[in-house]
Amino acid sequence: MPIETDAMDVRIQDPLELSLPPVTQDWTLGFVREELKQALAYWKACCGDRKRPERADMNPAGMSQFLKHVALFEVRHLSPTTRAYRVRLAGTNVEQVFGSISGQRIDHVLPAAISARWQKCLDTVFEEDRPLRLTGRAGFEDKTWLVGEVLLAPLGDEARPISMIFGAFVWQQDAIHVATAGRE
């Protein structure tokens, strides 16, 4: 009997997007990396008895074990149905992959296909109002030798729409690249 999961490929059916490696959404939150387990536990602790924590509940001291992996995305409502996301903060490990993106809207700083993919993932978290695990290879600047695992989780007053999305990103070289680099 096949095992059911809440995972699905989130490639957009667009020629540019199809050129990127697939990304999988996983609602089971079965994180492998310890940093992401810690980030999810911290987010849950900040929730208390609420559906989601507010940005003010999150502080750098509480995230010290995984702070370099953190990104905060500010939600900007362009219309009732259209959102844009500005990177409010990107940790050093996030910027090692994407460059200096803090303070920038993702659609202004990332290539169109990658921006569309991130927009879709962030919109999914906004619409579902719950944390999400992503896995896949980096598509930015052909860094497909990097395998990533990502947490995206909503932030904001429960009486209002989500105002930010908390992210934690862990990237590592794939086993083939590590083995090849060891022979050089």
- What is the CATH superfamily? PAS domain
CATH fold-level topology = Beta-Lactamase
Rounded to an integer, what's the Rg over CA atoms?
16 Å
Q: What number of domains?
A: 1
Sheet/helix structural class: alpha+beta
Major β-sheet annotation:
7 strands, antiparallel
Share of residues in strands = 25-35%
How are the strands of the biggest sheet laid out side by side? 1-2-5-6-7-3-4
What sequence of helices (H) and strands (E) makes up the elements?
Answer: EHEHEEHHHEEEH
- Low-confidence regions: 1-5, 11-15, 177-184
Amino-to-carboxy terminus distance: 45 Å
Helix content, binned percent: 25-40%
Number of strand segments: 7
Describe this protein's structure.
Strand 3 and strand 4 form a beta hairpin. This protein has a single domain, classed as PAS domain (Beta-Lactamase), CATH 3.30.450. It has six helices and seven strands; from the N terminus they run βαβαββαααβββα. The N and C termini lie far apart (45 Å). The N terminus and C terminus are likely disordered. The protein is of the alpha+beta class and 184 residues long. A seven-stranded antiparallel sheet has the order 1-2-5-6-7-3-4.
Describe the structure using short key phrases.
single chain; 184 residues; alpha+beta; disordered N terminus; disordered C terminus
Give the secondary structure arrangement, pairings included:
Layout: E1 7-9, H1 15-18, E2 23-26, H2 34-47, E3 70-77, E4 83-90, H3 92-98, H4 106-109, H5 112-128, E5 132-137, E6 146-155, E7 164-173, H6 175-183
Gist of the model:
With 184 residues, the chain is of the alpha+beta class. The protein is 30% helix and 27% strand. The chain has a single domain (7-183), classed as Beta-Lactamase.
